[in-house]
Design brief:
six-stranded mixed β-sheet; five-stranded antiparallel β-sheet; 2 domains; about 170 residues; globular
Length: about 170
């Protein structure tokens, strides 16, 4: 990031001679104004589609909340896990368990205890950042990779994970 600082000094003299103003005073008034203007410009090394958020989490890369270039899959990940929801799919999830009183099966989730179907009243679709095909995002040990075939999220510290696409899903 570059910082450019420019200081602009503007001297404005306002003179009023008593004879010219008709007041009868021979005093002259001078007003001086000083302004400091600071301009900041940022230069990014990341493409606009893969904005990286600052994070104190170990092994962090890529956007935390992203969508695939097609917009069909949206994911969110942090050091506690990963979740991907899908808009259009040709497969059906298994029946919702009795313990799920919200929307079920609109995506897959991965946590320390493994992978499964989403039971939630919200969505990860509509993320502002795009994770290009062939790129990955990671928070802690959770990593998601975007490919034209779909998205694969894994816990790189363990064997759990999932794959999700329009045509199919797999719990790894």
């Amino acid at each position: 990031m570059r910082r450019l600082a420019a200081t602009a000094l503007a001297g404005i003299a306002i003179g009023a001679l008593g004879a010219a103003s008709g007041c009868g005073d021979d005093e002259e008034t001078t007003v001086t104004e000083q302004r400091t203007v600071t301009e900041t410009t940022a230069q990014s090394t990341q493409p606009a589609t893969a904005e990286t958020e600052p994070s104190s989490e170990p092994r962090s890369q890529g956007p935390r909340h992203f969508r695939t270039p097609s917009g069909n899959i949206g994911c969110y990940l942090d050091a506690g896990g990963a979740r991907c929801d899908i808009s259009r799919r040709s497969w059906n999830p298994p029946p919702a368990p009795a313990s799920c009183e919200l929307d079920y099966g609109q995506g897959l989730t991965l946590g320390r205890d493994g992978a499964g179907f989403v039971c939630a009243g919200d969505t990860t679709l509509g993320a502002p950042a795009i994770l290009p095909y062939g790129a990955a995002a990671q928070r802690g040990s959770f990593r998601c990779e975007s490919e034209e075939a779909g998205v694969t999220c894994t816990d790189v510290g363990g064997a759990a994970g999932f794959f999700i696409s329009r045509q199919s899903y797999r719990i790894l």
